[in-house]
Amino acid sequence: MSQEDMLVALQREVESLKNKMSELEKRAGAADDYIAISNLQRTYGYYVDKGQWDDAADLFAENGTLEIAGRGVYKGQDRVRQYMNNFPKYERGVLFNHMQLQPVITINAESGTAKGRWRTFIQIATLDVEARWGEATYENEYVKVDGIWRIAKLHGFITFYSEYDRGWDKGGVKLVRSFKGLEPDAPSTYNYEAWPEAFIPPYHYPNPVTGRRNNGSV
């Protein structure tokens, strides 16, 4: 092999290594983003568990939105904070667990945005008053601001509430559609009812095998 041929071969090898390195950097960045978004959502859950409403609101982008249980859309971090502080304080006799489970996260690294579907398992109780099981499916959006992921949209579809002592085989508790004195900034995106009605929140992602879109039952 001539010296010129050797130089060409070396240049090709260097270019191939550069491409591989670039691909590895992208994959490493995607893994870091996935972990950061997972931690963000789980952190939200821990704050909600303990009634740390201001800490939870701090996780939202300045123009972030919140929509839960068909109560309408609250726009902007200040309104999200106002909504959250409407809930009980964490104190003796109050249980408000919202476990964040089963994430499916899709990330657009170029735009610095992402979407995530989560399930939250809920335990709510007030001592000597009520005790309930619940579940919600989240379809959320996230945005990277100054290198940090924040919640751009939190949409919690409550799929069931039921009384602990009766069990869900006896039916569910109707969703609370509004809070007195706390009107939303926009109406609900979807009109639905929880268990025992049949309802599937829409998926933000296609079937990973077939590529088909599934819009749920909304």
From TrEMBL:
Occurrences of domain SnoaL-like (ranges): 31-154
Superkingdom: Bacteria
Coiled coil ranges: 7-34
UniProt cross-references to SUPFAM superfamilies, sorted A to Z: NTF2-like
UniProt KW keywords: Coiled coil
Protein name: Nuclear transport factor 2 family protein
